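Quarterly update from the structural biology core.
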Amino acid sequence: MLAATAVDGCRYCSYFHAKLALKGGISHEEISRLLSGDFDGCPEEEVLAVAYAQHWAESNAHPDPEAVTRLQEIYGLEKVEAIHLMLRMIRLGNLLGNSFDYILYRISFGKWRR
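Predicted structure, tokenized:
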């Protein structure tokens, strides 16, 4: 969640996902690293999925077919479908948050920063 959110830059989603990560036992340092695109400290079995989530977000939900194939080889089709579902949900949340931020910016005549 943090890797994909970092790409889309929604401050509401970043806050929400960071809060969930803290509740899940992830340290402030690990959260900062994930938000900056650094996967050091990420469990080895999750690194590919986290890197893929970031790639998916950076490619505007159009990942390289080879990346999808590699993900399926490692995690299996069912898990990849679940990953894609979560990525679409995260993307929707990010788009809504960023749109809300833009509306606040416009109605405040730029006083509330985007």
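Residues 2-107 form one domain.
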